[in-house]
Amino acid sequence: MSISVVLGSFYGDEGKGKIIDLLAQDSYIAVRATGGNNAGHTIKYGNKKFSIHLIPSGILVESSLALIGNGVVINPKVLINEIEMFRNEGVKIDGRLFISENAHVIFPYHIIQDKLEEAYRGARKIGTTARGIGPVLQDKVGRFGIRMGDLLSGIYKQRLEEIWDLKIGYLSTLRKLTRLDIELPRLQDVIAEYEEYALYLKPYIANTTYMLNEAVEQNKNILCEGAQATLLDIDFGNYPFVTSSNPTTGGIISGTGLGEMASNGSVNIYGVLKAYSSRVGEGSYVTEQDNEIGDKIRDLGHEYGTTTGRPRRCGWLDIPALKYAARVNGITGWALNHLDTVGKLKKIRLCIAYQRDGIITDEFSANETYLQDCIPVYEEFEMNFGDISNIKKREDLPENARKYLARIEELTGVPIAFIGTGADRDDIIIC
Length: 431
Ligand code: GDP
Ligand code: IMO
Ligand code: MG
Description:
By secondary structure, the protein is an alpha/beta fold. Helices cover 35% and strands 20% of the residues. It has helices at residues 16-23, 76-88, 108-121, 133-142, 148-153, 156-178, 187-201, 208-217, 249-254, 260-263, 292-301, 319-329, 339-342, 368-372, 399-412, and strands at residues 3-8, 29-32, 41-45, 48-52, 65-68, 73-74, 97-100, 104-105, 205-206, 222-225, 267-274, 277-279, 313-315, 317-318, 333-337, 347-356, 359-361, 375-382, 416-420, 428-430. Strand 16 (347-356) and strand 17 form a beta hairpin. Helix 3 packs across helix 4 (133-142). The two termini are 21 Å apart. The model has no long low-confidence stretch (mean pLDDT 96). Magnesium ion (MG) is lined by residues 12-13, 39-41, 306.
């Protein structure tokens, strides 16, 4: 039995979907643990391309079950659309997809709240995906939340009635303060809309924690799918420019109930990264190339958001940040994607340390005030190699690529387990 975890090591969009798709081949269950439809995971094969926001990417591997854990926040409309999209593609859903009864539900007022709060922040906006993620998690912690199990029992109607004045009161205040003319929802409409969703989703709602731990007892392989990334973590990320959950290892345990992870020696925690880096949304980014180099990387790597279509900010890899991600998550191996993309550049840079107040350090803190004072110290690497998508062994890679990979391992102390050599599902080297 093994438990494998796939996590983002930087600011998201590292190519987690592709690694999940590979690892799901050997898994009995693939479980999404955190986030919601703020995530966008891309899987390509042949001329097919899937952009998946909510359903575990493991759904594309028919031998695996796909579970949405209690830590995920669910917009039922998005979920139903995604189920229908997969059905139309001939992907089997019934008997394979299960949704935790304890996962919290996103309502229309959460999405409106997200937009209004961003407007209220003005110049200090976070750059959220406007999917209602922050507000639904505020309600979860504030104990005003409604869970999938409440949809099933029908109790959600009573809960909505109880909290309605509070929610609408807050939204009305925000509307006044921001002067944004957003129409507010009506209770009866929301109840009617969600009644339909409840009916549709009923067969999928389950006790996923029990299912997962039964599978552990039966020595089955489990794959935990992370969303977002370490530096977007509410505790360990670049606060306040973060998401409202814990996309790090701790969040995987609390978002699934897989306590076995804490005591089992055979847990593989894969930190996904790109051979360069990217970020969407506001906040510090020490190695950002807000210049023609960044534009070139964006073009070569097709760096536009899977969820919002926003152009991603691009830059170089940041070793102090990666070391931090390795420690915070207990990463046992890197999955490094887009080696092919940096091969199209003549030379690239790797940030090996920071200079702060004239002192060279590899100490990382995700605090905004700390990062703003960091000047990156770079090493340069020759790249300039051709297509590597057919290479299946690390030792067959061009020498320039091998040197870069070896340096990343040396500086982080973590071995590279997978190397992405192209966007297609098969463009990967298993080390
Ligand atoms: P995720 O959110 O971490 O799953 O990543 P996204 O899907 O948002 O963004 C990663 C992008 O990189 C997608 O467009 C993938 O198809 C693409 N991708 C992943 N690995 C590779 C790789 O090794 N090479 C290239 N060229 N593209 C890759
Ligand atoms: P995947 O799983 C990249 C960012 C948003 C914003 C901040 C808060 O595809 O890697 P939120 O809507 O969560 O309140 O937004 O977090 N963000 C992501 N950036 N990839 C993601 O997911 C992200 N999910 C959230 O851009 O800066
Ligand atoms: Mg993404």
